[in-house]
Specification:
InterPro entries: FBPase_C_dom, FBPase_class-1, FBPase_N, FBPtase, Fructose_bisphosphatase_AS
Protein name: fructose-bisphosphatase
Strand content: 15-25%
Structural class: alpha+beta
Shape: globular
Bound molecules: 6-O-phosphono-alpha-D-fructofuranose
Radius of gyration: 21 Å
GO biological process, one term: fructose 6-phosphate metabolic process
Helix content: 25-40%
Order of helices and strands: HHHEEHEEEEEHEEEEEHEHEHEEH
Number of strands: 16
Distance between the termini: 48 Å
Cofactor: Mg(2+)
EC number: 3.1.3.11
Strand order of the largest sheet: 3-5-6-8-9-10-11
Length: 370
């Protein structure tokens, strides 16, 4: 059904989502959420661009540390609050997880006066759970390197209301864990994913499970315009995108494949180039556009790599697969992994199908050499 929509290239994101809702009434609430994402990403784009002005209040560090133990830059906090506020007012969201939050936070909540607890009030109006990294790669902003917002949207099929005032701690903890479990879903449960890249242009790329659609922000009218419907990643490539400084610590199969690509002795017989900007959204966007393999594999220092499953690996894997690419840990499809904790890390190798298959086969050979 989405195909009918993509014929009208040049439409605004708003018009695109209205047409999707007309053709797919069951997606109406989901398209409402994209209205909030549209607004938030325009505002974040403006914050990022203005953050380098001398008059800007958003330069430098917030002075706090986030759940990852990373110094929170002011922009991290501003963009996190901005996205939460925009999503909250859709009235359709339940528990959401953010890189900047210690534990998942409710969006439709009531103040129970309990400090530090997981305030979850999900009712029948709650349709979705959203997980996001509000400004991935934010440490690059001061250097003018692209950054991005990454969003994953799950259906929330269970309502739960926890009356903290009238149950004991244990019961509350058990109910919280059950509700939290609704956030911890595998990527195969994603109903939509999106990223917004703040770079030479501002690109909003999304999938609703039926192809990948790329919008570019036209700042003269303040609207995202459909620029590339049905994006398809080239099946083979000659670009790899890894932090090669970690090469000595990688699994043997990963090291072997990259060395073959570098020498031109891999499956394609082509010598690869290396392109890496250290900002996932920029590296993934280039990979989608030109083909290639982007990755942050596990290594001896970090067996699960550095990237987070819920709000980096899984949403980007969904987009990559919807564009005809693949996303693996080396031994497992990224989208099939169910997180056990909110900020779980996952090794990620994603991109052009034939090149990622070469990585998977290398891991298989290493696991069963005879
Ligand atoms: P490294 C940014 O900090 C980030 O989370 C991703 O955007 C990026 O792909 C990765 O880390 C870069 O990590 O260790 O290569 O600097």
């Amino acid at each position: 059904v989405l195909d009918d929509v993509c014929e009208t290239m040049g439409v605004t994101l708003t018009r695109f989502m209205n047409e999707v809702a007309m053709l797919n009434p069951e997606l109406k609430e989901l398209t409402t959420i994209f209205g909030a994402i549209d607004t938030a990403c325009k505002a974040i784009s403006n914050e990022v661009k203005r953050s380098q002005l001398p008059s800007s209040e958003t330069l430098g560090y917030q002075g706090a540390v986030n759940a990852q133990g990373e110094d929170q830059k002011k922009l991290d906090v501003i963009t996190n609050d901005l996205l939460k506020r925009a999503l909250r007012f859709t009235g359709r969201l339940g528990v959401l997880a953010s890189e900047e939050e210690d534990t998942p936070v409710d969006v439709i909540g009531r103040s129970t006066g309990k400090s530090g607890s997981l305030e979850i009030v999900l009712d029948e109006t709650t349709d979705y759970v959203v997980c996001f990294d509000p400004l991935d790669g934010s440490s690059n902003v001061d250097a003018g390197i692209p950054t991005g917002t990454i969003i994953g949207i799950f259906e929330h099929d269970e309502t739960c209301e926890i009356d903290f005032d009238n149950i004991g701690e244990d019961e509350a903890a058990e109910q919280e864990a059950r509700c939290l479990a609704n956030t911890l879903q595998p990527g195969t449960n994603l109903v939509a994913a999106a990223y917004c890249l703040y770079s030479s242009s501002t690109f909003l790329t999304l999938t609703l499970g039926n192809g990948v659609y790329m919008f570019t922000l036209d700042e003269t009218i303040g609207e995202f315009i459909l620029a590339k419907p049905n994006v398809r990643i080239p099946e083979s490539s000659s670009i790899y995108s890894f932090n090669e400084a970690n090469l000595d610590y990688w699994d043997e199969p990963m090291r072997e494949v990259v060395e073959r690509w570098r020498e031109g002795t891999g499956r394609s017989g082509v010598r690869f180039s290396s392109r890496y900007i250290g900002s996932m959204v920029g590296d993934v966007h280039r990979t989608l556009m030109y083909g290639g393999v982007f990755g942050y594999p596990g290594d001896t220092k970090n067996p699960n790599g550095k990237l987070r499953l819920l709000y980096e690996g899984a949403p980007m894997a969904f987009i990559m697969e919807q564009a005809g690419g693949l996303a693996t840990t080396g031994t497992q499809r990224v989208m099939e992994i169910t997180p056990e904790v909110v900020h779980q890390r996952v090794p990620v190798i994603m991109g052009s199908k034939n090149d990622v298959i070469e990585v998977i086969e290398c891991y298989k050979t290493a696991a069963a050499p005879f």
